[in-house]
Specification:
It catalyses: adenosine(1518)/adenosine(1519) in 16S rRNA + 4 S-adenosyl-L-methionine = N(6)-dimethyladenosine(1518)/N(6)-dimethyladenosine(1519) in 16S rRNA + 4 S-adenosyl-L-homocysteine + 4 H(+). Keywords: Cytoplasm, Methyltransferase, RNA-binding, rRNA processing, S-adenosyl-L-methionine, Transferase. The chain contains eleven helices and nine strands. By secondary structure, the protein is an alpha/beta fold. The protein folds into two domains: 192 residues, Rossmann fold (3-Layer(aba) Sandwich), CATH 3.40.50.150; 60 residues, Helicase, Ruva Protein, domain 3 (Orthogonal Bundle). Strands 4-3-2-5-6-9-7 form a seven-stranded mixed β-sheet. A two-stranded antiparallel ribbon has the order 1-8. The protein is elongated and about 70 Å long.
C-alpha cells in the first residue's frame, strides 16, 4: 500500500547527494541490524529512509507491519513495484522531519502504534531525527517505542554511547543517556555502502527509558549541560560563572562530592542531575 500517488517522473535510482543517499550493500551489516531489532511477528516497525528497500525486505519478513518513510519520489515508485502487493507494507512519501506520522496513519489502523524503529538514516540530519524520536530533556517525546536501531555515522554513534572522562563524551552523550539506554551494536566500514561515504558508520540500539529520579527542573538541566560543554577545555565552574559566582559553584561542587576542577566531561548523567537539582535558585 502507499499513502500518496507517485507523480510521473523519469526514474532515477542513482544516489542523490541532496538526500544524503548511500546504499548499504553489506549482508553482514544488514543481518546485525535485524538481529539487534529482535523482531517478532507482533512488531509494528517504522523505517526512516527506505531507499532501495534492501532493509525493508528484511523487516517485512519478520514483522506484523512495516511503515516506511521515503522522501525520494523516484525511489517510492521502485518501492511500490517491489512491495506494493504485500499487505504488511505501507509507504509514506515525504520528509520524515516534517511528517506527522500519527496523522498520516489515521486511515491505516494496522500500521498504527509502532513499537520499534529500524532505519539507515540520512547522516546529514541525524541530530534532527534523534530529537524528533526522543524529544529534548525538558520536553521528551511520549511514544511507545521499545527500541530504536539506527545505522549512523561513527562519530555520532561513539558520542551516544560514550562514558564520562572520554574524548567522545559530550553534551549529546548526556542528553541522550538521560532519555535512553544507548548501546553500540557494531561498526560498519565505509566500503559497506555504494557509493562509500567519507566516514565509517556504526549500528546503535537506543531504548527509551523511564527516568529514575529525574531532574526537578529539566529546563535548568538542559541549560547547565549546554553551558558546561560550551568550552570543553575550561573547568566546569568557569563555564557556569555566568549563572553563579566561582565561590558559590566551588562550594556546590564540593557539597556534591565533585572535584571543583572538573570539566564537563568528567560528570556522569547522575552527577548532572544532582547538580541541577541542587543548583541555587534566585
Amino acid at each position: 500500500m502507499i499513502s500518496e500517488n507517485s507523480q510521473k517522473k523519469r526514474p532515477n535510482y542513482r544516489p542523490l547527494k541532496r538526500f544524503g543517499q548511500h546504499w548499504l550493500k553489506s549482508e553482514k551489516a544488514l543481518a546485525r541490524i535485524v538481529a539487534a531489532a529482535e523482531l517478532n511477528p507482533r512488531d509494528r516497525v517504522l523505517e526512516i529512509g527506505a531507499g532501495t528497500g534492501i532493509l525493508t525486505s528484511r523487516l517485512l519478513e519478520e514483522s506484523e507491519a512495516v511503515t516506511s518513510v521515503e522522501i525520494d519520489r523516484n525511489l517510492c515508485k521502485k518501492l511500490v513495484r517491489k512491495f506494493g502487493e504485500l499487505d504488511n507494507f505501507l509507504l509514506l512519501q515525504g520528509d520524515f522531519l516534517n511528517l506527522d506520522v500519527t496523522e498520516a496513519l489515521k486511515s491505516f489502523p494496522k500500521f498504527q502504534n509502532h513499537n520499534k524503529v529500524v532505519a539507515n538514516i540520512p547522516y546529514n540530519i541525524t541530530g534532527l531525527i534523534l530529537e524528533k524520536l526522543f524529544g529534548t530533556i525538558y520536553r521528551p517525546t511520549v511514544g511507545n517505542y521499545e527500541s530504536i536501531v539506527l545505522l549512523i555515522q561513527k562519530e555520532v554513534g561513539d558520542r551516544l554511547v560514550a562514558k564520562p572522562a572520554t574524548k567522545a563524551y559530550s553534551a549529546l552523550s548526556v542528553r541522550m543517556q538521560y532519555l535512553a539506554h544507548c548501546d553500540l551494536v557494531c561498526d560498519v566500514p565505509a566500503k559497506a555502502f555504494s557509493p562509500p561515504p567519507k566516514i565509517d558508520s556504526v549500528v546503535v540500539k537506543l531504548r527509551p527509558k523511564i527516568i529514575d529520579n529525574p531532574a526537578d527542573n529539566p529546563q535548568l538541566l538542559g541549560t547547565l549541560i549546554k553551558l558546561g560543554f560550551g568550552k570543553r577545555r575550561k573547568m566546569l565552574r568557569n563555564n557556569l560563572k555566568s549563572l553563579r559566582s566561582i565561590e558559590e559553584l566551588t562550594t556546590l561542587l564540593e557539597k556534591l562530592a565533585i572535584n571543583p576542577q572538573s570539566r564537563a566531561e568528567n560528570l556522569s548523567v547522575r552527577d548532572w542531575i544532582n547538580l541541577s537539582n541542587n543548583f541555587p535558585q534566585e
